[in-house]
Request: fold
Amino acid sequence: MKYVDEYRSGAEARRFIAAIRRVVTRPWSIMEVCGGQTHAIVRFGIEELLPPEVSLLHGPGCPVCVTPCEILDQALALAGRPEVTFCSYGDMLRVPGSDGDLFTVKAKGGDVRVVYSALDALALARQNPAREVVFLAVGFETTAPAHAMAAHRARIDRVRNFSLLVSHVLVPPALAAILSASDRRVDGFLAAGHVCTIMGTDEYERLARDYGVPIVVTGFEPLDLLQGIHMCLRQLEEGRAVVTNQYERAVGPRGNEAARRLLHEVFEVVPRRWRGLGELPASGLALRPSFAAFDATLRFGMSAGAAAEPAECISGLVLQGRKRPTDCPAFGTRCTPDSPVGATMVSAEGACAAYFRYRPRSARDVV
Amino acid sequence: MCLGVPGEVLSIASDELRMGRVSFGGVVKEVSLVYAPEAAEGDFVIVHAGFAIGLIDAAAAARVFAYLDALGEVLPEEPHP
Ligand code: SF4
Reply:
């Protein structure tokens, strides 16, 4: 596939590895922010190829993983209602709430649909005027413009049986929280390329300045990640801390202005609870009051109960790069992708699932 | 949900959502190009959750390799078997 295969070349990867070995003189910890990057790093065994001085910490950028349990509980309650057709991206179906998952509700006869796009959910609402169609709107800055467009079209076209259960999160506040920790372990970040495709790099300039941390906007293929690591190490070794852009083919400095405009028209910034990280100020998006008619929690009078996360799951620490999935006693035994205890074992972008799927093989492949 | 994939724009309709057909290595999907107003047939776009979120800049795409060449790094010896 064009713009994919050429960034997976083994020969070029070996040249990058050699360059990384040459640039590094002491230990550094670099966090890749996005779950898609974690997935590629583990799948291609990139960590094992790096010199021992370089550790990669896996960050909080997996939307499936950070959606809090109480949102899942609201989703389960809505999906169980007889008048509701509940629409979600496929990877949310297996995420455990306090009592079961969406898949279980579906198996019990709930009308739960997997959609590719929020527009598919809106189309279902138009086709089934007697049903209440609810869309589970989760994700980072990358999916928010898509969900904003669905709400915007629903309002213009007066689609009255469509609503969104919104639990959107924003990347920069999570990075700030990780950087503010007293025992901060992160020396540099590989920022999530596609989030910056939408948002541009302004907020990251501020983080780099305030916390003295280099941030490299990075893509998702092996050569992207290796170049991002090299760019980050070079700054660390030279004592610099600025934002640079490895992923120039998809990220301009100003981001996508049309997408951002609609995002801000539909959503406002609110405090959000993150699974594993707790509540972070100004770290999420909710529908603005002008879109209240499309807010599923208001339409169905749902209260936001607090739900406890499974006690033995350490995914909160995994999402902050403080623990590895393999440090968890449940990993691979009581917790597997077929029977996940925590959300980081559900999504392909979750660190626990990526380790479970690829780690034995990639560790064997190391020369 | 969060994986962005590059695809080639095959056609674009003139509706308000700029729905288009985008090919991902032969797999064709219906995608909204409303956030990629400058995209035309034959362009490559990054698609996320059914929306094109940006165009791929072909000149910038080659810079990964230019960066590597500028490092002057040659292919290391194959590791010993
Ligand atoms: S292995 Fe399972 S229980 Fe342990 S941290 Fe990962 S998701 Fe949680």
Summary: Chain A touches chain B through 59 residues (CB under 8 Å). Residues A 312-315, 318, 325, 328, 330-331, 335, 341-342, 344-345, 352 surround iron/sulfur cluster (CB under 6 Å). The first helix of chain A runs from residue 10 to 23. Chain A has two domains: 1-313, 315-365.
